[in-house]
Amino acid sequence: MKLYPYLLILLILAGNASAECKEKECMTTEYKFQQDEGTWHTFYYNEVFNIGTNWYIIFDYPSGKNDDNISFEFATGLSKVHVYDPDKGTDSISFPGSSFTEEIFNLELYVNITGPDGSDGEFVLNIHVNKPPADDMLYLWGGMTVFWVAIGSYVLYLSNKLNELNSKVEKK
Fold first, then answer.
1. Crossing angle of the two packed helices 136-171 and 3-16, in degrees rounded to 10
2. Which of 64, 45, 170, 14 is nearest to 111 (CA)?
3. Would you state the pLDDT for residue 124?
4. CA-to-CA distance for 97 and 82, rounded, in angstroms?
5. What does each C-alpha distance from 106 to 11, 34, 154 come to in angstroms?
6. Which of 63, 73, 120, 154 could form a disulfide with 79 if both were Cys (CB 3.0 to 4.6 A apart)?
7. What whole-number distance in Å separates Cα of residue 145 and Cα of residue 133?
8. Cα(105)–Cα(127) distance, integer angstroms
9. Residues 26-59 pLDDT 10s
């Protein structure tokens, strides 16, 4: 009987745990952009931005490029600017899960690559902002399970006490 509370706590904590992957292998979309002089930029991202979880965009630095900036700006006005790090070959930025509050389909993310001589190129990525279903059902099922287990345990307890009482009455 002592096992049930531990099992319940484990299930509740495991249900809320989520792993956010920040690796290229986890990203669903790869976008390659070629500048005028033939330099390739590769971007990895998920096409779906789930509200409540961080959204990452990973990019590979082209060889020989270390003094560029990349600006990311959503059509809603949310933006970030990243400066190339010459010590890295791959880098990433993230947008927090609280950036959006409602679903938006085909949201445009404007990406502008700027070098020392001005703009080296720009392009648009389309993503979908998704609002995942509420956890209310999980809590409802969990709460109802605890409620009915408690009721069942109490009924068993009362039944055992009643049987003990009947045994004592029959002996007298």
1. 180
2. 45
3. 95
4. 19
5. 36, 23, 54
6. 73
7. 20
8. 7
9. 898 999 988 777 778 899 999 999 998 999 999 9
CATH number of 19-130: 2.60.40.1930
80 residue type, one letter: K
Give Cα separations from 151 to 1, 72, 107, 155, 156 (angstroms). Answer: 14, 55, 49, 6, 9
**95 sits in which H/E element:** strand 90-95
pLDDT in tens, 59-98: 988 876 667 889 999 999 999 999 988 888 889 999 998 8
Which token pair is 86? 């010459």
Tokens for 114, please give them: 């700027």
**Beta-ladder partners of 112:** 71, 122
Specify the residue for token string 């979880």. Answer: 53
What does pTM read for this prediction? 0.66
Outline where DSSP puts E strands in 27-145: 29-34, 40-45, 48-50, 55-60, 69-74, 79-83, 90-95, 104-115, 118-130
List the domain boundaries for the chain. Answer: 19-130
The residue type at 35: Q
* Sign of the torsion formed by the C-alpha atoms of 149, 152, 158 and 160: negative
- Amino acid at position 94, single letter: S
| Side-chain-facing half-sphere of 104: CA atoms under 13 Å | 16
